[in-house]
Design goal:
The chain is mainly β. It has strands at about 1-5, 10, 20-25, 30-40, 45-50, 55-60, 65-70, 75-80, 90-100, 110, 115-120. The strands form two sheets. Strands 2, 4, 5, 6, 9, 10 and 11 form a seven-stranded mixed sheet that branches. Strands 1-3-8-7 form a four-stranded antiparallel sheet, with no helix packed on it. A hairpin with a 6-residue loop joins strand 4 (about 30-40) and strand 5 (about 45-50). The radius of gyration is 14 Å and the shape is elongated. It starts with a strand and ends with a strand.
Length: about 120
Amino acid sequence: QVQLVESGGGLVQPGGSLRLSCAASGSIFRINTMAWYRQAPGKQRELVAVIMRGGDTTYADSVKGRFTISGDNALNTVYLRMNSLKPEDTAIYYCNADLWTVVSNTPRAYWGQGTQVTVSL
């Protein structure tokens, strides 16, 4: 079994900052990529940022220059530093991992339960 546990969400004023964390645990053999997605009410889930094994990162255009994804070498823990937050960043943020377990012969995706981020006065 694999668990992804997010933390760090909350209420913040526009222009403020938050740092989300995602910890992966369980029968993990190798993590290929970790990513953050978000889903706002009435909207589809969208990719926010990805970090690959080796450290390469990609970002959605809407968060470039404001958000930073980082993680340890094995990607067991990843972070999303969010600066200059805007009301439109309000959403549930989900951690996603593409990984191999100790018993799998193909990688697959796993999801965390999500953490709420609300940007409002």
